[in-house]
Specification:
By secondary structure, this protein is mainly alpha-helical. Helix content is 66%, strand content 8%. The chain has two domains: 37 residues, no CATH class; 188 residues, no CATH class.
């Protein structure tokens, strides 16, 4: 038996004054970081105090535990972000993080799925050659390869665009709505959850695009609906996270921060797509500028 402390006179845990002897468990030497500690787990790295030799069943039990934890954290995060997004993220920022799926993993998972779906199915739903077949002028026809390359580049790098937009949204939102209560990193965490979940909502609505296949009107309707859904969801999350009392104040501040971020994103994205196309296919760009001459 090991003793950790002794109190000559104590009035805690009962009536009267008494001498108290505190016992402790055996001292363990962590197999991972060599730290000395008492208890079942190392407080420094989380390594178990006792381990056993691996057997065949351990392979499947560890895999099952990892899969169960993955599902539990993901499903919990989806539930929270669907029912109380702002409150949930604020609690995460304040330290309530055990049950949540990590925000960066949430973005990578949903962004990766979205990228794969857009690259594989977008051309089938919105074939630009069919949608813009009524173009008559040489200038319009010449610019189409440039537009197609720009769209394809955007879809190939969709997750990176989300990451960049999150940085900007995080910055402008804490400056406009945060009132110095939150820093930039906490704003980034907010948008890692919010933008990822808004992308998940768009993915659930994606099958509806089958009904507007190869329609230029359907293309604009889809773009408008996606933007509207994202905006409404973001306002809802902002109101809860920043604890805004007035819905109208939340709306105009949200619009201001989103427009500021969108302006920067639009300028950089447009210039970047122009440079990528210029480097990858100069002849296409020359024809677009000269009207195919």
């Amino acid at each position: 038996m090991y003793y950790s402390a002794i109190e000559i006179a104590s009035i805690n845990n009962g009536e009267g004054i008494r001498c108290v002897l505190w016992e402790s468990g055996c001292i363990h030497h962590c197999k991972n970081c060599q730290n000395e500690y008492h208890g079942h787990y190392c407080p420094n790295c989380g390594q178990k105090a006792t381990t056993k030799r691996l057997v065949f069943n351990d392979i499947f039990s560890e895999l099952l535990n990892a899969f169960t934890y993955f599902n539990r954290g993901l499903l919990y995060t989806i539930k929270m972000m669907s029912t109380r997004p702002g409150h949930s993220v604020r609690e995460y920022v304040q330290g309530k993080r055990v049950n949540h799926f990590h925000p960066v993993n949430y973005l990578l998972l949903i962004g990766g799925v979205a990228t794969w779906i857009y690259l594989h199915y977008w051309d089938d739903l919105f074939n630009m050659d069919i949608m813009f077949q009524n173009m008559k002028t040489k200038e319009q026809k010449a610019i189409m390869p440039f537009v197609k390359k720009a769209v394809h580049f955007a879809f190939e790098n969709y997750t990176y665009q989300l990451m960049f937009s999150i940085l900007l949204y995080g910055f402008f939102s804490v400056k406009i709505l945060g009132k110095e209560r939150y820093n930039w990193v906490e704003g980034i965490v907010l948008h890692l959850f919010v933008i990822s979940h808004s992308e998940l909502i768009k993915l659930f609505l994606f099958p509806l695009l089958i009904f507007v296949k190869n329609s230029i009107i359907g293309f604009y309707v889809q773009s408008t609906m996606s933007s509207l859904i994202s905006m409404v969801y973001m306002v809802w999350a902002y109101k809860q996270f920043f604890e805004e009392k007035s819905i109208w104040s939340t709306i105009w501040k949200s619009l201001l921060s989103v427009l500021a971020a969108a302006l920067v994103i639009g300028l950089i994205s447009g210039f970047g797509s122009f440079l990528i196309t210029l480097v990858s296919d100069k002849q296409t760009l020359i024809k677009a500028v000269t009207g195919g001459k």
